[in-house]
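Late entry, written up from scratch paper. The run itself happened at the end of the previous shift, but nothing got recorded in the book at the time, so transcribing now.
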Amino acid sequence: MKQSVREQEWADWLRLAMTGDAQAYNRFLVAVTPHLRAMARRRCDFYGAPPSEAEDVVQEVLLAIHLKRGTWDSTRPLGPWLTTIVRNKLIDSLRRRGRPVNVPIDDVSDFLEAADETNEAAARLDAATVLARLKDPQRDIVRSISIEGAGIRETAARLKMTEVAVRVALHRALKSLAVLYRSE
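Output as recorded:
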């Protein structure tokens, strides 16, 4: 499978980010976010989800990329990995809304094999243990958004916080988790 120059550049930045290069990670996120947003909008349109759903999906995708970037096999193209995350987060969103989703087996067959190969570093981290090291409300926000699959708006309403405050707390919590992850 041939990668575009753009995807190759993103992959190079993500590889550098995985070695601790914060500037490369920032370049990666800034460059990939518009692509993710466009992909999420197309998928929302295809599956009949409201366009407003796309931004929540993008936020969840960015969070998933941050938390799961260690699972990306850097010898493989980045595009299919990103596409899979967008698709899965949209499907999660649609499931929360209660709409049945049918995904053709051809869309996921390549990834079913890869799902069997677990990443040792990810397997060692027990979510409950790591989350216990965060302070409230960061722990509640990460649990709500990352584990339970709630959106920013829903989490903010439940915790009686503004959406901006939830995003800031989520960002800080992820930063703390990254430090914890690197130390282990």
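The first helix runs from residue 5 to 18.
(Scratch paper discarded after transcription.)
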